[in-house]
Predict the structure.
Amino acid sequence: MSSDSASPPEEHIQESLPYFEEGVMAGFPSPVMGELNGTLNLNTLCIQHPATTYYVRARGDSMIGAGICDGDILVVDRSITPQHGDIIIAAIDGEFTVKRLHRKGSNVFLSPENPAYPSRLLTAEEQADFFGVVTWILKAACRRNSGKNYC
């Protein structure tokens, strides 16, 4: 076999990458770039409980008001007890969804963040299970290869 047909070695992504604490202005440009403050590991930043955390890809547009778009990756922690106002992963009669949890007295609602969709009152007849609280939303700034151009 010639060397031309050999596969290149896999590139390994470092767990920690350079991190600039000062940030970058989203308005008018800053005259000076900040100093490098070390490195940042996204696993360390986004995952507090590795044994109970998982990722899931969001589908649909019912949570766009919360900044969750189709194709985003959600970081979900099962060890956090869902509270009123949290964005959660739930299964209702075996169908998974991501919605905001609302409690009003003894009533529990799962609410979208898009006015095109109604809130859902959970009833005693439904099998409803909660599978964690969304702690981070990971999104691409540019999705040229997905058929949608967000740039």
